[in-house]
């Protein structure tokens, strides 16, 4: 390949790498799972075959053929043409799907790096193969390089899951080391661990509980919406320093696949858990509501035999989970018939200050202490 063809190849590699970088955010949103990411990619043609770059490429082909048939055989002119085409294609298109910003974690950067390397190998290899028998420094060579570059540009979305696949052995070792570090740190800090799960209401319940406990104790809730296994590990390894003396650690636990909550519970070993609600969130991943219920039930099995799980009796699916629980359980509801009924005053002068949350607790069959613990009666 001539120097001009090599430079043009680099232009296309940059264009493909930029596309991989922009799509990395959506791959991250899908938790780096190839099947979910590919389904998202194929859901709309514009995601895997963008219209604007295709139009620009077609225009470049038309102009190149027009120049060649017009007798303009200057390689430098064709090189400038295709370089401009590559630069236009490399420009980001307006993105309307702003679900959340890309988090530049170490794993994300490793995956993007591997994807960019694959982009470079595909474009460079394909260009070298297609131009092997062509004369150097000709319009035909430069046009062929650009076609190979555009093919590599279209391949860029698949470079992310393929790059992640290549990194699987390394990532497995790093995740296990991250888990061991978090487990050791949590054991050294020795806080009372409370796990919270649910299709919705996890984060708000976590903040309410942290605020209540924070009145008398030092509490560390997982930040933001960190509710995956690696997210909880990151929170522990970053902020749960044993020297801080945290009395309570509130861990939010989410699930995209069966077994994920069980892994988080095994890591954190909660002594108490709360199930807020079960709904159709992530139904496309779990297929049925029953599978979602089973996934949420993993937090119940994650507490020790003497631990307690609290169920939101207002949610019909959660209410059905309580009778079959093998651990100590407690349910609350705004309706009658639940062991713990939550009511509000009919009138109040100030909604936030004068409205007191009252809880009436039914006496358990085995008896109850004269003064119930904080989780049995909030006044």
Distance between the termini: 79 Å
Classification by helices and strands: alpha/beta
Helix content: 40-55%
Number of E strands: 8
Number of domains: 2
Mean pLDDT: 84
**Envelope shape:** elongated
Number of helices: 14
CA radius of gyration: 29 Å
**Uncertain parts:** 347-379
Strand content: 5-15%
Protein architecture, described:
Helix 1 runs parallel beside helix 7, helix 6 packs antiparallel against helix 7 (139-166) and helix 8 (168-189) crosses helix 10. The protein contains 14 helices and eight strands. The chain is 54% helix and 10% strand. Strand 2, helix 10 (229-239) and strand 3 (248-252) form a beta-alpha-beta unit. The protein is α/β, with parallel strands linked by helices and 379 residues long.
Quick recap of the structure?
By secondary structure, the chain is α/β, with parallel strands linked by helices. Helix content is 54%, strand content 10%. The chain has 14 helices and eight strands.
What's the arrangement of secondary structure elements?
Blueprint: H1 3-29, H2 34-42, H3 45-48, H4 51-69, H5 75-90, H6 106-130, H7 139-166, H8 168-189, E1 192-197, H9 202-213, E2 219-221, H10 229-239, E3 248-252, H11 260-268, E4 272-275, H12 283-286, H13 289-302, E5 308-312, H14 316-321, E6 328-333, E7 340-343, E8 358-361
Parallel strand pairs: 1-3, 1-4, 2-3, 4-5, 5-6, 6-7
Antiparallel strand pairs: 7-8
